Amino acid sequence: MDNSHVALVSMMLKSESFSPFRCDRNIALGINLTSLTKVLRCAQNEDILTLKAEDAPDVVNLVFESSESDRLSEYDIKLMDIDQEHLGIPETEYAAVIKMPSAEFQRICRDLMALSESVAIECTKEGVKFACQGDIGSGSVTLRSHTNVDKPDLNVEIDLTEPVALTFSLKYLVNFCKASGLSGQVRLCLSNEVPLLVEYGLANNSYLRFYLAPKIGDEE
Amino acid sequence: MKTRSRAPVKKPKKEEGEEESTTTSTTLQPSETSPPRLFVLPRDATPEARIVTLPNPATSTPNRYYFCPEKGFYEFTKIAAPRRTPRSWLLAPRRNHKESLNRETGVTFQEEQELVKPLDAEAQSDSSDDTSLSNGYVAKDADLYIATPLDPLFLLLPILAPPSTSAKDEDHLLFVSMDDHLDACAASSAHVKQLLRHQKLRAMLQERMNHVCDAVDAGAENMYRLSKDKLLEELLVKARRLATNGLPASMEQKFVRAALEVPVMNIRREESTISAVSTDIAEDVPSQDTGSQAPSESTAESQQTADSAGGASSNATSFSLASTAAAETLSKASIAAPADVAELLQVRTAFNFIATSYLPPHLRRGLQQMLASTKEVDFTPLDAHLKHLDSLRSQAQALRSLSDNISRKRSAVEDEEAAEVRAEKKRKKEDEEKKKKTQSHGVRQLQKADTSGMKKLSAFFAKAPATKAAK
């Protein structure tokens, strides 16, 4: 969860993604993201990463093995107590689910960011409309369902059970879009009065999910 | 001439003696109206020596002078204890003359005269039957009158230059014969008439007159007219002598050292309040001490005889023995004037002192103007130096008021508080910086995001049971 408690990130790496994977019992490791970033920067692209933690850990151990050379680097990150509430997120049936290229979503967010801080996403039968109203004017991007046979990554699929119109903070969305490199496709799931789910699918059924609370009311 | 009148002395004396012998009586006698006074007179004065009343040359009020036909005039210098520290004289007979005292009190008293001299011949002659002083006496006032030689020239000046002469005809004073001058003298005071019968005095006066007058030979006798140039010359000689012999300490302090004192220019910053105060003291002490304190409670007041109290409390006449040593040490260091400048100032101070003490006011002004322009002494370096000092002083004043302001802003108490506040701010800033460093760029950017109207996620998602992993 972010400092304002309006956004949430959840990343699931299934055990299939690891080889080997061993977990004797459920354990929560509180890791400072900044520290983790620092250590991960020490890794090289093709390195083999091993994550290890003891039973009652106070550090998490990261080992980077170079696949080409015999280089082996090992780091310990001190763990931290995460007193943040652990929210249970129910699997929800969303009123609208939009699948689109992640690059496209990033582009829209960036373009609209130039005009305003928030974007209204309207899903109708015709398509999905990203619209914003700013000091200098207004702008909107409308997408319709589109199928590209040659490049399935560029497909736009809109699955709609009922029309949805919600407003979100673009600043958060732009940050979500930084995950675009992980996946060619992004899934936006919307329901009225419910947080937006932005999901980037990863290999082996793993996923990276962002949740963002909608802006309700028009006091801005 | 009531230096010691008979009746009042005698009567209380006797009763006092009784009191001493019995020590039973508790009633105190009323204090004498004119108690005995102590005089120090020249040792070998002739018996004809008298105390006379003459007009004070400076103020033309009647004043007491001691006159000896052989030696000339003496003025009385009063040496008194400061009013705040009361003192008294114990006049006691000589111990080894106790026997003779019993037999003949007059003898011991005569011997005592060497120390305690009665003031007039009358008292002296009568003293043989006055047993009071020989029995011992406590004088209420610890005043001591010392007869110091006085140039008869000063007594002549009011006659030579009558105050009636206006500035216009000052240069056209008539030549007057010696006798006429003296007759004018005699007219002013009955005592003078008596004195002028002494031929020696006439000769003395004539001799002095020659020094300050233009003379013309008019046949049988010489005619005299006051010459200011000569007078100035004469006074300058006196002033130089006074300066070279050393001015009295209090005069030196107030008029020479204080005037030449170089103001403190560089006030150290870290203790600016303290140093500013100390310089204030250094400047105040000389001026106040000699200026206001000394006249009021100085140990001596010159020119003051028995019944003309306060007659000559002019600013320059305080021979204050009250120690100005402290002030002196304070200012001594900061005097960095050329030697000749200090000398000039001493001469000028001495001249002014003589002028204010002994010259009639109308003569004083003229002579002081003449002194400024005289060729005898060149005062220009002194004036230049004093001007320089003045500018320095005003600069220092400006600087001090400035530094006062600074120091007030940074007083010790406020300094502490300010330091605390500063430390608090610094700590907060450091905390923030630390936080910022641990925060990622994205988080920082998101802090600026407008989250108004956005519900917290906890409003949508219930708190998870520990089985989150099951999902």
TrEMBL record, chain A:
PANTHER family hit by this protein: PROLIFERATING CELL NUCLEAR ANTIGEN (PTHR11352:SF0)
Residue span(s) of domain Proliferating cell nuclear antigen PCNA N-terminal: 1-85
Alphabetically ordered keywords of this record: DNA replication, DNA-binding, Nucleus
Pfam families in alphabetical order: PCNA_C (PF02747), PCNA_N (PF00705)
Main location per the UniProt record: nucleus
A single GO molecular function term of this UniProt record: identical protein binding
Signal peptide positions (record): none
Gene Ontology BP terms: error-free translesion synthesis; error-prone translesion synthesis; establishment of mitotic sister chromatid cohesion; leading strand elongation; maintenance of DNA trinucleotide repeats; meiotic mismatch repair; mitotic DNA replication lagging strand elongation; nucleotide-excision repair
Coiled coil: none
Its job: This protein is an auxiliary protein of DNA polymerase delta and is involved in the control of eukaryotic DNA replication by increasing the polymerase's processivity during elongation of the leading strand.
Family classification: Belongs to the PCNA family.
GO CC term, one of those recorded: chromosome, telomeric region
Protein's name in the database: DNA sliding clamp PCNA
Localization per Swiss-Prot or TrEMBL: Nucleus
Location of the Proliferating cell nuclear antigen PCNA C-terminal domain: 88-215
InterPro entries reported for this sequence: DNA_clamp_sf, Pr_cel_nuc_antig, Pr_cel_nuc_antig_C, Pr_cel_nuc_antig_CS, Pr_cel_nuc_antig_N
From TrEMBL, chain B:
Compositional bias segments (type: Low complexity): 22-36
Compositionally biased residues, Basic residues: 1-12
Composition bias type Basic and acidic residues, residue spans: 419-435
UniProt cross-references to CDD domains, sorted A to Z: RNase_H2-B
Origin superkingdom: Eukaryota
Annotated spans, Disordered: 1-38, 104-134, 276-314, 416-455
Gene Ontology cellular-component annotations: nucleoplasm; ribonuclease H2 complex
Compartment(s) where it occurs, according to its Swiss-Prot or TrEMBL record: Nucleus
Alphabetical UniProt keywords: Nucleus
InterPro entries reported in the protein's UniProt record: RNase_H2_suB, RNase_H2_suB_wHTH, Rnh202_N
Any one Pfam family match given in the protein's UniProt record, by short name: Ydr279_N
GO biological process: RNA catabolic process
All residue ranges annotated as the Ribonuclease H2 subunit B wHTH domain in the record: 154-367
Ranges annotated as biased composition (Polar residues): 124-134, 287-307
Rnh202 triple barrel domain: residues covered: 40-151
Function: Non catalytic subunit of RNase H2, an endonuclease that specifically degrades the RNA of RNA:DNA hybrids. Participates in DNA replication, possibly by mediating the removal of lagging-strand Okazaki fragment RNA primers during DNA replication. Mediates the excision of single ribonucleotides from DNA:RNA duplexes.
Name of the protein: Ribonuclease H2 subunit B
